[in-house]
Amino acid sequence: MYDEEVGRWIRLHQDVLYLVGRKNGKTPLVSAINLAEFFCGPEGIKILCSSNDYEQADLMFQAINAMREESPSLEKVTRVNIKGIFFGNRKRVSRKGKFSFKNKGSIRKISAKTGAKEGRNIGVGAVDEVHEMKDNTSVMPIRQALSTQDEPLYFELTTEGFTNDGYLDGRMIEARRVLNGELDRPRWLIWLYTQDSEKEVWQDEKTHVKSNPGLGTIKKWSFTRRMVDEARTNQEMRAFVLAKDFNIKQNNAAAWLTDEDITSEDEFDIEEFRGAFAIGGVDLSKSGDLASARALLMKNGKKYTLQRYFIPETKIPALSKEDRVKFEAWCAKDLITVSTGNENDFRHVTAWFYRLFQDYGIRFFKVGYDKWSAVYWVKEMEELGFDTVRISQDWGSLSEPMKLVRTDLQSKLINYNQHPIDRWCLENTAVEMNGKMEIRPVKIQGKDDKKIDGTLTLIFVYKVYMDNRTEFLQLVNESR
Length: 480
What we know:
The chain has helices spanning 26-40, 54-70, 72-75, 140-145, 167-179, 199-203, 221-231, 235-244, 259-262, 321-332, 347-360, 375-383, 395-410, 420-427, 453-467, 469-478; strands at residues 2-3, 8-9, 15-19, 46-51, 78-81, 84-87, 106-111, 124-128, 153-158, 188-192, 254-255, 277-283, 291-299, 302-312, 336-339, 363-369, 388-390, 414-415, 429-433, 439-443.
């Protein structure tokens, strides 16, 4: 393209969006282009590899370095250290020219979490896995850093993901408008390897090459077939495979349980567990919101839960009309402890656990809690002899217990005594997934006013149970 500002013919495509299924060689391909620009581009060119985290950015950097090391002629005129790849080799010193120390060209890596991204001056920028970005705050400093170059080159390479209304969603809308001729962006090169529909994923494997151009050469057919077979019966695997292997965007807050999963006709009497061992779970939540406490008991391989809910009195009138009727009915049945004023009095939570011990001899092995406003409550519990365990509400901590809760609900191995608030919380819960196939509970999209505190405490007690299964089961068996 002839550029009147520069006064000469320059590179046509300066902005590249490359969307392709996982394991089709997108990172090595862009790494090779970066390496070519480093050696064949102008002297002093600076190249930046970026991603959401440092490890992902390092994958591209290491791919570039591996290719550099494969070539004796390239390796002998460059050097690599913890900061990056640079021209000049201390063992083979060149006094002048492109391959000497005087050439200040470099290849470096940063992550979205890296500070001081502003003020850079680069010729090539490559951002990997942009599907995880919620906005453009990570990419715009890199794009702005290219603004002084005559022939900059900017790459965005990714698969589809799970982030709703994220940065990639906006880019994909614009990209499709360009491909449809609705927008004129002559310098934007767009490669979208996607399926035409989800239906063809399950019905015709020959169409899989639409999202996976490397099938049979880079990516194994057997691997893709195995992933598709597993995805037919596994909810998390289905969403992951559709997004990562076939670039079909998935809602990151999909439904978690069916009505059949939640429905339980069993009830039990607390007297059956007099003198038993239990695991506790508490979601103290925000001071002005619903709080939940739970006890997990076991008998004959089945799990039973006792629960109690807490809410400030001023919050009930502020609920929607539908929910207000429910809460007033639950309060009338003594299913909720109401605190005076605008805040939950967490002493009521402590009293509930102590009452189970005092009235029924139920001994708590450990009590898991979230971190919100828990300092004084934890101190109070520990003064009464309870062993408390803090539970992080991140992906890695909640994923496996949440999966086990669903499996046990589906297998009817959880008896929550048909508690109506438990059922309501479970109905309000959706599952959110990240790129590592880890899950965590969130509210169903569009229902931000609903509560899932009961679901959280159920997951918390399962987390404590899974971390201490052998020791807890031994106590359960000895107490029979």
